[in-house]
Amino acid sequence: SNNAVTARAHTNIALVKYWGKKDENLIIPYTGSLSLTLDYFYTDTQVAFDANLTTDDVQIDGQPASAKTTARVSRFLDIVRQRSGITKSAAVRSTNHVPTAAGLASSASAFAALAAASSRAAGMNLSLTDLSRLARRGSGSACRSIFGGFAEWQPGTDDTNSYAIPIKSHGLADLRVIALTTVKGPKAISSRQGMRLSVTTSPYYPAWIQTAQADLVALKAALAAADFTAIGKISELNAMRMHALTLSADPDFTYFNGQTLTIIDLVKSLRHSGVECYYTIDAGPNVKVLCQSETTEKIVTTFSKVLGDENVIVTKPGPGVQYL
Ligand code: DP6
């Protein structure tokens, strides 16, 4: 189509996590979060509004999207249509640049790319702040993927003031994130459901709000000081406290599998043997290891033996959203 727009957005890994919504419809979180956008994994999405379509036509990686995914994309596009005054349906073509079946496809890169492509295809020319606000409506973590490098999602109180801002960093160019993929089980529980269950049933949720806020303050100080040790320690502890909310929910659940625990042990033994590295884990069994360029090779070798080369991917800080 003549009005097709394509945008690329990269995934991000939160070092201080978002886990719980104050407003589920607008996606306003209880706490701020801070992430690093990664260079290796990204989504390219093309959007064209087309008067010949009667419903949105969504394809992901060359396949028609499921009814559930199409409905979620359509609800998002309804926001764009409402704001732009467009009534046409859209053709959406999305490609995830992640190793197949590794479970690394992310709603963050998906909705950041969709926000950028759909808003421009609808004739809007949004600021990065407004793009971040829009991406947030699709998936909370997507608001951070508008920016490259470190980004902080300021929770805000309503749609106008809940968005991410870039966090400048100096002296962290040698930071690396090693993505470790484990055996893929059935996806037990979405992050959306998981955080709802944590908020409504974990007696530790109020403590999470307190500690996550403190973690964010400490992480920003560590980033400003380019203090890798502090960055790693804060990130690891914050991740485990998030996962404690799943174990303390009713019914309890966990995103970890056996390999997740094996990796955690190995990171700790590497550290005890003088190889400085830390882990963080999102709503799935895969692990991301934070390290610096000089130790990357040693860590890759260690995990390749355990998981196989194909399950060990070295990533670096990546760029913000861009139009292709
Ligand atoms: C563990 O952004 O996927 O990765 O807003 O419901 O779409 P929704 O959730 P989502 O949750 C991300 C959770 C996390 C932590 C993080 O990225 O901050």
TrEMBL record:
<protein>
    <recommendedName>
        <fullName>diphosphomevalonate decarboxylase</fullName>
        <ecNumber>4.1.1.33</ecNumber>
    </recommendedName>
</protein>
<keyword id="KW-0444">Lipid biosynthesis</keyword>
<feature type="domain" description="Mvd1 C-terminal">
    <location>
        <begin position="184"/>
        <end position="310"/>
    </location>
</feature>
<keyword id="KW-0456">Lyase</keyword>
<feature type="domain" description="Diphosphomevalonate decarboxylase-like N-terminal">
    <location>
        <begin position="9"/>
        <end position="164"/>
    </location>
</feature>
<dbReference type="GO" id="GO:0005829">
    <property type="term" value="C:cytosol"/>
</dbReference>
<keyword id="KW-0067">ATP-binding</keyword>
<dbReference type="InterPro" id="IPR036554">
    <property type="entry name" value="GHMP_kinase_C_sf"/>
</dbReference>
<comment type="similarity">
    <text>Belongs to the diphosphomevalonate decarboxylase family.</text>
</comment>
<dbReference type="InterPro" id="IPR005935">
    <property type="entry name" value="Mev_decarb"/>
</dbReference>
<dbReference type="Pfam" id="PF22700">
    <property type="entry name" value="MVD-like_N"/>
</dbReference>
<dbReference type="InterPro" id="IPR029765">
    <property type="entry name" value="Mev_diP_decarb"/>
</dbReference>
<dbReference type="GO" id="GO:0019287">
    <property type="term" value="P:isopentenyl diphosphate biosynthetic process, mevalonate pathway"/>
</dbReference>
<keyword id="KW-0443">Lipid metabolism</keyword>
<dbReference type="InterPro" id="IPR041431">
    <property type="entry name" value="Mvd1_C"/>
</dbReference>
<dbReference type="GO" id="GO:0004163">
    <property type="term" value="F:diphosphomevalonate decarboxylase activity"/>
</dbReference>
<dbReference type="InterPro" id="IPR053859">
    <property type="entry name" value="MVD-like_N"/>
</dbReference>
<dbReference type="GO" id="GO:0005524">
    <property type="term" value="F:ATP binding"/>
</dbReference>
<keyword id="KW-0547">Nucleotide-binding</keyword>
<dbReference type="Pfam" id="PF18376">
    <property type="entry name" value="MDD_C"/>
</dbReference>
<dbReference type="InterPro" id="IPR020568">
    <property type="entry name" value="Ribosomal_Su5_D2-typ_SF"/>
</dbReference>
<dbReference type="InterPro" id="IPR014721">
    <property type="entry name" value="Ribsml_uS5_D2-typ_fold_subgr"/>
</dbReference>
